[in-house]
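ok new one. same drill as before - C-alpha cells go in, u give me an amino acid for every spot. 578 of them this time. try not to just spam alanines like last time pls lmao
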C-alpha cells in the first residue's frame, strides 16, 4: 500500500504520496508555484531557482521542483523572503536578456516575460553586459540565438533524455557558460535530426524555426508563378489553437478556405499523398512478407524525416529495413510538377510547390539533394503551422468565421486512413487497413486498431492476415525508437512492421506546431484526427477515388516503374560527427 505523507503548505494541511515534490504537493492546495527550468515530463534540475520556497527550520530556500515532502513539513510558497528571491532571480535574467520583445518570435507567449509580469517586476535594478553571440543558422530548419538563452537547460534535456540525439550541451564556465553544439560547429554540421522538440522546450525565443514566409509571399505575388499548396494531416488538429479556437477543434475546411484567401492558386491536401504512401508502402510490406521483394523484415516506415536522419546517423546498418517510400510531402511534390502540371497544362517550371507541415524536419527534407525527381526541386518551401497562422493573421482573415471548403479534388480527396497519419500509430493503422486487402482480397472488418493508439512510448499489436499473424510495433520519440531498433540490430525483433515517428505524439507534436510540451494536449490533437477518420465517407486508402484515378491515368500500379521513379528514394550513410 502506498505510504502517505501529511504536510502543511501556507497553513493548510495536504496529504500526498511519499516521494511527491513540494511543487506537486502545492497543486493539491490549489497553488501553482512559478518556475522556469522545470518542464513536465523532463527530469527536474533546479537550475533557475525561480521555484524556491521556504521550509520552516531550514536556513536556505529550497527548489520545490526537486525537494520531496516529508511528514510534518511546513512550507511557505510566497513569504516575503521567497517573493524577494524570485524577483531578484528574474531581474537578473532580464538584465542579461535582449530587449527586442516587440519583434521576438515569442512575443505574447514568452515564459520569462510572463514571469516578470506575474511577479510584479516593474523595473530592473541591475545593469549587465548583454552577450553578443553569433546566431547559429547552419541548419535549414532550426535557428539558435544564444543571446536569448536563459541557461535553463530544457532544450538539452529534451535532446539528451527524450530524443537521445545529444547534439547540444553546456560549454564554458561562470558568466561564459552557454548552450552550444560540439566544437560549436552548428546544428547543421552535427547529427541534429531537425525534430524541433528543443523549440517546444525553450521558454524564450532562443530557438525557432527558419522561416520562409517572405519567400512564399513573394511567390504568391509573382504573376509568372503558379503556387500550389498542401497541408499535412496534423495541421487541421492544431492550427485553430493559434487562431483563437479551443484546442481540439478540427479546422480542415477553414484551413482550405484560408489558403485560397491568402492567394494560393491551387489548394490540395497532403492527406491525399498519405493515402498514396499507404498504397506504395503497404504493397512493399506485402512484397517483403511474401518474399517477392528481397529485403529484410521488419520493414520500417519512412514518413518521418527526423527519424530517417536519426537512422542515417545512428543506425545506418538497418537502412535496408526502411521502406523506400518517400514521405507524403515528398510524394506530393513531384506529382505537383508532373501529374498535376500535365492535367492543368501548366509549365512545371512556373509551379511553386509549398507545403504546410507540423514538422521542422520537413524543411530539411525538402532540401535534400535527391528530392528532385520531377526534374525540379519537388517541394520549394515548407512552412510550419505557426508560420501559416502568422500569414493568416497578417492577411487579416477572420479564421474562426470562415466557411468550410474542400481541397481541390485532383489531389485533395482523402480517406480517414490519410488523416490519422498525424497521430502516433496512425501510419501503422492505415497501412494494415490496406495491407489486409492486398493479401486477402477482403476488407479488414475491424479497422479501428486500438492497440496501436494512445501515448505509450512503444505499442504493439498482432493482426491475423489470412492465417499469418502479422506482428507490428509503434514508437514515438527517438528515445523510444532506440528500444525497437536495438532489438532489430541484435536479431531479437519479432515484428514484421515497425512505425517510428521522431516526435513524441507523432506529427501532432511536431516541432512546427503551436508551442507546447503538454502531452495531454498532444493526445487531444490525436483524438481530433481519429474523430475526422470516423466522419469521412472513405476510411481505407485503397478506397480513395482520386488515388484510383491517379494509378489509372498515370502511375499504372503500386511499385510500377513510374512509381519507383517519382515516389521512392534511397538513404545516405552519415557520419556520427556531421
Amino acid at each position: 500500500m502506498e505510504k502517505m505523507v501529511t504536510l502543511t503548505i501556507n497553513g493548510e494541511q495536504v496529504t500526498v504520496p511519499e516521494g511527491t515534490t513540494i511543487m506537486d504537493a502545492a497543486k493539491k492546495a490549489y497553488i501553482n508555484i512559478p518556475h522556469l527550468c522545470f518542464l513536465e515530463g523532463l527530469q527536474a534540475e533546479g537550475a533557475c531557482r525561480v521555484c524556491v520556497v521556504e521550509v520552516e527550520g531550514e536556513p536556505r530556500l529550497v527548489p520545490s521542483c526537486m525537494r520531496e515532502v516529508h511528514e510534518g513539513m511546513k512550507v511557505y510558497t510566497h513569504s516575503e523572503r521567497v517573493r524577494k528571491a524570485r524577483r531578484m532571480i528574474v531581474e537578473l535574467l532580464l538584465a542579461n536578456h535582449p530587449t527586442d520583445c516587440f519583434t521576438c518570435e515569442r512575443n505574447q507567449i514568452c515564459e520569462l516575460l510572463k514571469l516578470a509580469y506575474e511577479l510584479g517586476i516593474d523595473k530592473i535594478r541591475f545593469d549587465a553586459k548583454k552577450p553578443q553571440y553569433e546566431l547559429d543558422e547552419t541548419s535549414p530548419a532550426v535557428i539558435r540565438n544564444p543571446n536569448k538563452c536563459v541557461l535553463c537547460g530544457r532544450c538539452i534535456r529534451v535532446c539528451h533524455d527524450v530524443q537521445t540525439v545529444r547534439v547540444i550541451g553546456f560549454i564554458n564556465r561562470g558568466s561564459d557558460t552557454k548552450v552550444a553544439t560540439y566544437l560549436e560547429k552548428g546544428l547543421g554540421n552535427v547529427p541534429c535530426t531537425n525534430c524541433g522538440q528543443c523549440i517546444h522546450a525553450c521558454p524564450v525565443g532562443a530557438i525557432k524555426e527558419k522561416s520562409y514566409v517572405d519567400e512564399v509571399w513573394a511567390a504568391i505575388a509573382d504573376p509568372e508563378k503558379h503556387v500550389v499548396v498542401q497541408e499535412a494531416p496534423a495541421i487541421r488538429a492544431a492550427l485553430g489553437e493559434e487562431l483563437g479556437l479551443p484546442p481540439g477543434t478540427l479546422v480542415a475546411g477553414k484551413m482550405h478556405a484560408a489558403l485560397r484567401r491568402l492567394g494560393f492558386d491551387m489548394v490540395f491536401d497532403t492527406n491525399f499523398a498519405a493515402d498514396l504512401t499507404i498504397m506504395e508502402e503497404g504493397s512493399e510490406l506485402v512484397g517483403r512478407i511474401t518474399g517477392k521483394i528481397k529485403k529484410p523484415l521488419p520493414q520500417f516506415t519512412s514518413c518521418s524525416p527526423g527519424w530517417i536522419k536519426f537512422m542515417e546517423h545512428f543506425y545506418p546498418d538497418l537502412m535496408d529495413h526502411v521502406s523506400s517510400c518517400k514521405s507524403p510531402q515528398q510524394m506530393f511534390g513531384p506529382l505537383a510538377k508532373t501529374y498535376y502540371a500535365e492535367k492543368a497544362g501548366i509549365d512545371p517550371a512556373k509551379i511553386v510547390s509549398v507545403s504546410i507541415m507540423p514538422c521542422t524536419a520537413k524543411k530539411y527534407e525538402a532540401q535534400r539533394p535527391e528530392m528532385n525527381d520531377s526534374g525540379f526541386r519537388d517541394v520549394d518551401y515548407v512552412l510550419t503551422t505557426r508560420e501559416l497562422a502568422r500569414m493568416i493573421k497578417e492577411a487579416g482573415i477572420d479564421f474562426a468565421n470562415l466557411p468550410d471548403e474542400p481541397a481541390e479534388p485532383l489531389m485533395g480527396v482523402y480517406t480517414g486512413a490519410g488523416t490519422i497519419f498525424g497521430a502516433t500509430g496512425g501510419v501503422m493503422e492505415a497501412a494494415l487497413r490496406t495491407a489486409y486487402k492486398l493479401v486477402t482480397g477482403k476488407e479488414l472488418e475491424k479497422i479501428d486498431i486500438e492497440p496501436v493508439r494512445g501515448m505509450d512510448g512503444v505499442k504493439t499489436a498482432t493482426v491475423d492476415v489470412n492465417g499469418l499473424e502479422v506482428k507490428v510495433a509503434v514508437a514515438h520519440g527517438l528515445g523510444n525508437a532506440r528500444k525497437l531498433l536495438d532489438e532489430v540490430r541484435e536479431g531479437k525483433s519479432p515484428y514484421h512492421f515497425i512505425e517510428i515517428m521522431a516526435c513524441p505524439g507523432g506529427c501532432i507534436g511536431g516541432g512546427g506546431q503551436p508551442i507546447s510540451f503538454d502531452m495531454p494536449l498532444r493526445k487531444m490533437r490525436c483524438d481530433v484526427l481519429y474523430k475526422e477518420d470516423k466522419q469521412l465517407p472513405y476510411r481505407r486508402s485503397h478506397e480513395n477515388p482520386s488515388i484510383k484515378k491517379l494509378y489509372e491515368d498515370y502511375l499504372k500500379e503500386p511499385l510500377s516503374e513510374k512509381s519507383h521513379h517519382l515516389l521512392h528514394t534511397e538513404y545516405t550513410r552519415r557520419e556520427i560527427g556531421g
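The longest helix spans residues 270-290. and btw The CA atoms of residues 465 and 513 lie 36 Å apart.
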